[in-house]
What does this fold into?
Amino acid sequence: MPNSIEQVTPKTKPKLLDQLRSTIRTKHYSYRTEQTYVYWVKRFILYHGKRHPQTMSENEISQFINYLATKENVSASTQNQALCSIIFLYKNVLHQEIGDVKILWAKKPRHLPVVFTKEEAKKVLAEIKGINRLMANLLYGAGLRLSECLQLRVCDIDFEYKQITVRSAKGNVDRKTMLPEKITEPLKAHIKKVEKLHEKDLREGYGAVYLPYALRKKYPNADKEWKWQFVFPATKISTDPRTGIMRRHHIYETVLQKAVKTAIKRAGITKHAGCHTFRHSFATHLLEAGYDIRTVQELLGHKNVNTTMIYTHVLNKGGKGVKSPIDF
It folds into this structure.
């Protein structure tokens, strides 16, 4: 019996998980996707006593996915994530076709988005300081997802046209959204500081930034150019876990998440809210202001207007805007 999951393949071949990582990188999937796929494949192998996936098929996959639903009570989306990871392994690494996988899907509850009132949004933003406040203003003022905000490059900000280009967003689609006038000057001042930091990195032999595969291939020497640098760089240079290259990445997600959670608490708001609540509030407040739903759909980057329609359910106070008989 091998001592670790990494050793489930013969020594003459790359380890199974190394093959998986290599295949994911060849297909240019994100590092987060790589981590997720490796995690679920590990769980799958451990669940079946470290058996090699080549010795298993549909039945074992079904057993594992159903175990997640019935014993661990995971959500339908988590089940789907685990299944996709395992199917990817069989299809792209082991080159083995998988037939019908019988799954007892977990029930996916329908949740309405949590939304700040305009006053609540202002209170929370007032409790956030420094760069975190600038980022939070972009979440609320431009409807950005947290990851979209952190991954902004200098060339994505157009001060002349007062717009932001969000590249390779959810669904790998680019979109444009507004640049709020209120934060234009603070953002300009911030970018000037970032430029000085980039110049310092260059002098010290660093200054290269991570570029997605398509950009790296098209512009092989662009990683040190100013326009491709992150708008919100990390405070320290770190090692890229994939390449081992020392460079400055963007600020880590938890930095803003913690700042927003703390601000919500200080503002005395009891709603179960977080960074994404600003995006929900952006959409709801635009609809309240009379903007049509198609415009809001485009700004949010939703493929289907039905996704945007969920915000109409939180527009009116009470049950669909119906007045209670006690208030007649």
The first strand starts at residue 157 and ends at 158. Strands lie at 157-158, 163-166, 175-178, 238-239, 246-247. Residues 184-203 form the longest helix (20 residues). The mean pLDDT is 89.
